Records
---
Amino acid sequence: MRLPIAISEQSAEPLYYQIEVQLRALIISGSLQAGTLLPSIRELASQLKCSVITIKRVYSDLEAEGLLRTKQGTGTYVSHVEKESREEQKHSVVNEAIDQLLEAAERVQCTKQELEMLLKEKLQHYEP
Amino acid sequence: MRLPIAISEQSAEPLYYQIEVQLRALIISGSLQAGTLLPSIRELASQLKCSVITIKRVYSDLEAEGLLRTKQGTGTYVSHVEKESREEQKHSVVNEAIDQLLEAAERVQCTKQELEMLLKEKLQHYEP
Amino acid sequence: MRLPIAISEQSAEPLYYQIEVQLRALIISGSLQAGTLLPSIRELASQLKCSVITIKRVYSDLEAEGLLRTKQGTGTYVSHVEKESREEQKHSVVNEAIDQLLEAAERVQCTKQELEMLLKEKLQHYEP
Amino acid sequence: MRLPIAISEQSAEPLYYQIEVQLRALIISGSLQAGTLLPSIRELASQLKCSVITIKRVYSDLEAEGLLRTKQGTGTYVSHVEKESREEQKHSVVNEAIDQLLEAAERVQCTKQELEMLLKEKLQHYEP
DNA sequence: GTGGTCTAGACCACC
DNA sequence: GTGGTCTAGACCACG
């Protein structure tokens, strides 16, 4: 199985973090259904051309968040999460991003009007 | 002179980065006028209770960006930046933050409608 | 790996600057191919008998110029720079030095003839 | 008396050094004849809009080089230097600049041919 | 193992 | 007084 995850060499974000964000999104969005068996650590590491240790960290982190579940000797599965809970998490991810946007805007003293204008323009091309 | 800069011990962001972001914002927003003499590195270090070297790094980085100008034996000054250029930088900072928001939303497959709803709610409390 | 860099205690030039100039030259000249893994900051520091921080500064500065690329936990690599761009940079380095020469000559009112004579003499021994 | 000296705020060169280089050139080139009374420290400082301490340093340095001569209570004069000696110094100033050029060229592995080409081009516009 | 950050403290150059 | 450089040494994050 091949996960639709891409890592950027250019980005300053640490490898493990780039992967976590994308895998988390796949689960929260429902693209990966509950119970799905993820690729093994070694397999994913080889797919993404990164260290096994990095993938291990990703799986551990997401397991700690309750999104994944590891069964000894079988592999790592997507946990069963209520649809409502998934919606909640989705909103919380987006809300966090919004907060960061507002912080940045506030720091450079961007007026509400300016901010709305810039947002409107960008939102036009938003095609999820 | 006392710069309105606050640093958070909790934040995972490195010290120097927190300070850079805020000082950059003060300049771009025009709160600090061109030609303003900034506090000496030693003074600011003592104000923010951090090492002289950390402040030195902040000033150097911002000088490399062209926002500051330091003269040895004299002090560090805010560079003269065109108002239009400031506006541009302001918008580019905000647009970057917007891009990150849209990326996050897209990843969790947030619909345009949902996103607009969440934005609308948060924007109500935006008071720059 | 051992970089052919020599530092002079006599020179008034700061340590970090001496190293930067030489490493930059190695890259621009193509002596170090794109993708080459440089020695770790600790290793180079020990080779050149200077502080780790000094090397760190060198690598950071050259990274800011786009000549190097560092990946945390991995190491520091020579960036891929177009051959034409390298030629350009080479010429720009030399042209800058020529400008400084002409300025100096002009200041002491050295005639074109004198200058050419002195140049001719020195150029005889130029063996790159 | 007004010396034709200009200082650049942009330059990274220290103030005292910029002034020294120019004043030295005025003397070596013969633009300032032996015996000429230079402006007082305070006067020159006010002309160049810099600190008295900076000019004091310039005069001291050039006096140490034997180019100037200070008489208590009267002022600072241009020393009498043999014409041949002046020529020598002129050449030594220029030769030093040439050496720096060659070093830079060598570092980036500029071939003799390339160097000569760049030099020829620049020399065309040399009008002392 | 790698680089990233931060500290305290020193000494120097400049104005 | 200012900034500029450099040190030794520590601790953390990443792979």
---
Amino acid sequence: MVDTKEKIRKAALKLFNEQGIDAITIRHIAKELDISHGNLQYHYKNTNDIILVLFNELNEGFSRFFTHRENSGQVTLEDFRHWVEILIEHIWQYRFIFLHFVEVTRRVPEIKTLYNSWDKAREEQFLLLFNTLIREGIFRDDIPPYIWKNLITQQYIMADFALSHNEIKMQLKGKKAVQYYGQVLFNQFYPYLTAKGRQQADKHQGIN
Amino acid sequence: MVDTKEKIRKAALKLFNEQGIDAITIRHIAKELDISHGNLQYHYKNTNDIILVLFNELNEGFSRFFTHRENSGQVTLEDFRHWVEILIEHIWQYRFIFLHFVEVTRRVPEIKTLYNSWDKAREEQFLLLFNTLIREGIFRDDIPPYIWKNLITQQYIMADFALSHNEIKMQLKGKKAVQYYGQVLFNQFYPYLTAKGRQQADKHQGIN
DNA sequence: AAAAAAATAGTACATTTGTACTAATGGTAG
DNA sequence: CTACCATTAGTACAAATGTACTATTTTTTT
């Protein structure tokens, strides 16, 4: 037996990513799956329910991904770059959320709460990471704390809205977008590097 | 005689900023103004028309603002900070565009074209500004060109989506939001400063 | 096998929205 | 004054949507 609920989530994710959340109703999703909208409604009362479930999926993905790299003692810049790329890939998978973040949070207020509570953990981890990289002589040690905090906010905004920027500007598709914005996100950290850090970065420098 | 067209734009801007573009139809705007929607339709066929006009208003504002500061030969960091603040204030004025940027460009494709063509000029001016600040010993001279270009992209994303971030996170109101995100935007440049530049910056440092 | 529960299809209806259209009003140029 | 044009109000209707509900079929449980 195929799990209808899962089929619905998959189809909804696809349609949301392609056409946005306003254009899509349960009727559209039902049509995509060739089932009745009455049936779909039996599983999820409306699109907002589905959006919430998909947001939780995204969150679980992130959590798995964060705890995964916790045990590593030392961090190279290359690790960090790789980490940023995976982050963006995740975001790409659920891009409708980020492309319509304000609408999403207005339509499903719980999402705002979820996002904000989960966010705090992310901040801690960032500061830890920064400190590690400072200790290893990769990041500069002459940056005041409020600038590090600023960098985290900056990093949030950039990660959350990079794909929106892509949408209104270049319109890179799939892998290309992930690559490009991975690079942009990573390059954010360049001026924070020490000479040693820059050497490491230049070794692996991608397109510019 | 009061200009009905202008009254409509004002009311639409207010409603869009308050409730977003999906929630608002010409009927809502008409109701806000106590005129018939038939009348409103006579002036603007639909909300997309109004959105386009408002976007052009925003653009004109930006253009005025850019050309204004062109003639100044020397640039201090304080000038620059002030400039960033005015930028954000502008954006706040027309925040519905930035809060729903993807939707806006999807509903009114011309806006994407307008944004992109106007964008190029902005890029030139940034590079010029950076070079001036480097020559004056305020910005570092050991940053490769692709990182400066990256910084411009970064600056776009940050400016365009700072208010979206505010919406899903802290929800600062009016002046508070403008102040906070002005600071965030300005702090982006901190690690690009020379020792001399940092001195200048610290003199006027705001909240942290 | 019978009963109960879960899943699916389909209907019904009030509301909203986009769009087009008609009618009335008011100012103004000739 | 009157004929014309711009402006305003209001009506009409099809399509889409949210929501609730019924009927049927399928699956599971006992």
